[in-house]
TonB-dependent receptor (Bacteroides uniformis), 1062 residues
Amino acid sequence: MIFHSSFLMERRAFVKPNYLVFMKNVRKYLGLVSMSLVCASPLAAMVIQPFVGVTIVQQNVITVKGQVMDEKGEAIIGANVIVEGTAQGMITDMNGNFSFQCPVGAILKVSYIGYLSQTIKVSGNAGTLKVILKEDAETLDEVVVVGYGMVKKSDLTGSVASVNVDEMAKRNPVNIGQALQGAAAGVQVMRNGGDPSGETTIRIRGIGTVQGSADPLYVIDGIISSASMVNPADIVSIEVLKDASATAIYGSRAANGVVMITTKQGDKNKSRINFTANLSVQSVNNTIDVADADLFTWGVRQSKAADGKSLTNLAWGEQYAGQLQTIDWQKEMTRTALSRNYRLSASGGSSTSNYMASIGYTKNDGTIINSWYERITARANAVSKIRDFLTVNTNLAYVRTGSHGGGNMRPYALTVPTMDHLDENGNLMNVPIKYPDGSYGVPLQEMNGDVPRGSDNLVARAYDNDSKNFTDRVQIDFGLTVDILKGLTFKTTNSYNVTNKSSWDYSPRNERTITSDGLDTFSMEMSRSSDWNSENYFNYIFDTKGHHINAMVGQSFNQSVDGFELKGSAKDFPADNYRDIASTLNSTTKNVEGALKVKTTSLSYFGRLIYSYKDKYLFTGTIRRDGSSAFGRTNRWGTFPSASVAWRLNEESFIKNLNIFSNLKFRIGWGKTGSSYGDGSKSIAQISTSKMYYYWWNGVNYTEQMGAAKDKEIDTNLHWETNEQTNLGIDMGFMDNALNVTLDYFIRNSYDLLLDRNMRPSTGFTSIYTNAGKIQNKGFEFAVNYRKTFGDWFVNVGVNGSALRNEVKEVGDPIFATEASKGYEWDNHSIIKNGYAIGSFYGYRVKGIFQNQAEIDALNNASSTGKYQSGSTQPGDYYYWDKDGNGYINADDKDIIGNGFPKLTYGISINANYRKWDFMLYGYGAYGQDILSYSAMSLSSIHNSTGEFQNCLQEYISNAWTPENHSTKYARMTVSDNNKNTRVSDAWIKKGDFFRLQNIQVGYTFDWGMRIYGSIENLFTISSYNKYGDPEIGTGRLNLVGYDSGRYPYQRTYSVGLSLQF
């Protein structure tokens, strides 16, 4: 005989006294407890039943069987099925089944948390019952995790997006970025290529800093942590706090939004073992359409002839056309790769404690040869109620990641497609990539006008070089929750985490790498960092006559220690694979560095008040005061307040009577957050003797004496960056909340930005680190979700989007950005300038292509310098716009030519269930973004910046300007490029609009608890940019938004998987 859980809860509520009162009235309450336990015991029921239930005993008794399911057709585990008015019944098993004896005519009551209860009268021929429980819109009011607590979603006054974790889990994401991609309005997630680690760049409501970090804050189980510390399969909920009224409780850490993550816990009185497995096959789905050997060598001959130069690599001569072998370096450098992902977890608990432990393993072989990524995760969560008033929780997490190699598709596409040599008799030899003896062939190259030279064999380099990276992270959390009085609790959470990183790179003696010095090279790096956090706060909840008050006040302490960093390198070792820097044969190549890092400390005080009246009028106010050692003593503290209100109009009679809205809520919020960067050294004056000398006259001559001087100027008023944000929102629900719509408009002003500003030379310093910048982000967000059951069908469709405008309001002198070692006069290709988006593209504007010499001569004659562009400009060269109108082209004619911020980002998901089948479709995209494509430029030039020939787009060679073909979009092919057609210009601004169908999946769930599925990821990408690479660009660098220089290729992935629950 099993008691209904509500019956037990009612009895416990009666016999459980307040702890403090209990201590004063021990005897009295012991008596009550004893009587209650006796009366509630099964023995008592057996004794009493003969006297009060004679009529039941005399009725016919049958065995009633059945299954309890939800509206999706999924079994409900742990539902209560009892005979109404008695304690007779049971809890449904793993498949939702129940079976027990009861009298004919009895009333069965079926209930489960979050669902409407249902009653069924038992007839004599009941057979197998099928009970469908419907969701209770009132009790199912979603609970949302916010800073230092939880609130009902209906009570939210700020802008918070909840991620559907069930749908996320089906996509099998590797990291948090992939979990968030396309899942929440206002959250832009960009993958940094198809690297096996799946690294992403995440931005919430734009970029509001110049030299700091724009990454959001991650809070895992109430502890500020790294996103890499959690396996997405361990997550039970994700909330994204977007506006300042929601994030200000985290003050100076929350300028870029907050991602709240809650991991799985065990269930009381239930034990489970879960196992999931995913096996994937990956292949590169988009290669660049470059020229084959014949077309490439034809282009070389054309460009040589255009410049009046002869061919030096005779194997590329016209007489060998049709005989050349084509080496597809993109194909040779990539492979079909396997990816495996496993997770095993055990969870359970009793009435006073619960636990969850999991271990996960991921291995991705990588689609570029000799690259791989590996991850091991382990987590253990435990909660124990050791006293009626005291609960203890502990979490332990460990993550180890390792990777090897990497790659970039652009260099592979650019490598010359021939490995054809001539013997001493002038006969063509087809050189293989690899000989039978294991040695590698060497492709011949040709410099501009020089003799042929060797080039790298990319396959040899990939296999010979050894480059590995490993990271180990450990985090330990310990917390206490104390119930002090009714409604008053105290909670403390403390955590400590350590990160160890190590990496090395080894290149053997390799004569195939002609540009090297022929020496083997070894470098390595090690670092250790740690930090600990302590969060302590009181929470008080009070309800009376329609008034609800939730007050919280607390204190936080954080100390981060970057620990140490060691790195060294050397060349020329006694033997191959000798990896000991101290053993180098050439001490001049040895370089060893080490440093101990300064620790940073922060101390915070915070408070929050949540108030509602009759669940209609809502208010939330927070304040946080942060102090940081990153600033000088006079400016260490910053105050970050917020306030927001909401009005639930659907609770008003004049809205209820319309019978249109099942939910209607207006929200308005305002708040401030902040940020700081660095370890405090920017606020401290430093004295240096480096290169500080003066000359002293000793009566005979001058002698050099070492001196000391301040090596930089400091701003003694350095203080926090501040983000001030205003948010207007509306939440609407229709058809009993089957259709939900959320709209938000926000303005985010970031000011007092920390950056380096130029100083007058007369000061003796070049720049000063100060508060000087201002950036504004404003935009509109929407989210629409429809979920409905149609017979055996359940459908859930979601669409979200965000329109954003980023503008630099104040930055002083423009700040330029250059991607290192790019050549082609691509210096300062991005700029941070007042009135434009951060990292806007900066270059020349192309008016067209010169068609004849007369056009060039007319401009040269009108120029005061005698030349409009270059003395070597020829027909077929680009014609650049003279911005300042002075008659000639120079750096002053560069202009803002675009920016990489999309006008709109969006995501779409479709989920459907039919009985035991499930289907999912998920995609995302962007509209209105520009791409400054270094890839497009280099693929549209037959030579590189040092004069070596390189392969290029088939489209470019076939459609470049020639004297016979003037109707082209490409300038002429040339070796010398005296007109600098490859310089940064709007010729290389490409449309980056795209839509990617990221995942399509079909699954089936068996009665005994196993689900199997098959899926395809990255099925297709619709974009005009595909010919140059992938349009999804995430660099992680603030001033390089939308800048493409190539990356690890994206893959199409075919997966099968299963999940088991015992």
In short: The longest strand covers residues 547-571. Residues 1-58 have pLDDT under 50 and may be disordered.
